Amino acid sequence: xxxxxxxxxxxxxVQAETAxxxxxxxxxxxxxxxxxxxxxxxxxxxxxxxxxxxxIRFTVDIKERLAGKDARKSxxxxxxxxxxxxxxxxxxxxxxxxxxxxHYWLQDVRLWELAPGDYDARMPKPPPRxxxxxxxx
Length: 137
Description:
Elements: H1 3-11, E1 22-23, E2 30-43, E3 54-67, E4 74-81, E5 90-97, E6 104-113, E7 131-132
Parallel strand pairs: 1-7, 4-6
Antiparallel strand pairs: 2-3, 2-5, 3-4, 5-6
């Protein structure tokens, strides 16, 4: 190995391997991999909210069911956030059924897979996919 190649190898950034995040979920929750489609956004009027939250309704098109008993391919859900959900990516979603209703409240969401064309080989390695906790709580 030449001295220049050795120096370049030492100067290259080192990426530490990070452990995938562990996602906890309730025994009655629906845990899926899927894409979200925005339905509506209503601004929450609050003088103390400097970031501008809103109530978001969306549908989840389910690609894979990891936990839960709802057999539908698409479910309605809601959340409070700063803006619309990203529709182009796949996510791991933990959804809690709203008592007495057929729709869900978003408990947790993590990026599962980038959309085609969003990853460039020059970019840092994407974070590891999240993993579900061994058991529901």
